[in-house]
TrEMBL record:
Belongs to the MraZ family. The gene is mraZ. It is found in: Cytoplasm, Nucleoid. It comes from Knoellia koreensis. SUPFAM superfamilies: AbrB/MazE/MraZ-like. This is Transcriptional regulator MraZ. One of its GO terms (cellular component) is nucleoid. Its main location: cytoplasm.
Length: 143
């Protein structure tokens, strides 16, 4: 499970240091793709395969399924971290997420998310109060 918040920087070649605690799980390969809210999703290869198998089971007669699948998979890039734990973020994905230098990497359970730090801070500011004020269960039976 991926947890926590980290603040690595992109280097001039578009490479990002994966947080040390995430590296072992991604050492054999990972997939970076478009996420929602203009972040990037990073999956260990095995988790990405599981997610795509679920997507393939969805009915392609649904336009929403086709649209989501196209956007999600067309931006996907399989990568292998180098010996220093750096992973290259392709230019099209850096542009999609607005990544420049300062990034925020968060653990999101089965995946990692990569955000432009300013965008992450704005997102967090806009959602924290709703999280605190939640008067009904978002995930039934969780707490």
């Amino acid at each position: 499970m991926f947890l926590g918040t980290h603040t690595p920087r992109l280097d001039d070649k578009g490479r990002l240091f994966l947080p040390a605690k995430f590296r072992d799980r991604m050492a054999d390969g990972l997939v970076v793709t478009r996420g929602q809210e203009r972040c990037l999703y990073v999956f260990p290869m095995a988790e990405f395969v599981r997610v795509t198998e679920q997507m393939q089971a969805a009915p392609t007669t649904s336009k929403a399924v086709r649209d989501f699948t196209r956007v999600f998979l067309s931006g996907a890039s399989d990568e292998v971290p180098d010996k220093q734990g750096r992973v290259t973020i392709p230019a099209n994905l850096r542009a999609y997420a607005g990544l420049t230098k300062d990034c925020t990497v968060i653990g999101a359970g089965s995946r990692v998310e990569v955000w432009d730090t300013d965008n992450w801070n704005a997102y967090l500011e806009s959602t924290e109060q709703g999280f605190a004020d939640q008067s009904e269960e978002v995930i039934p039976g969780l707490l």
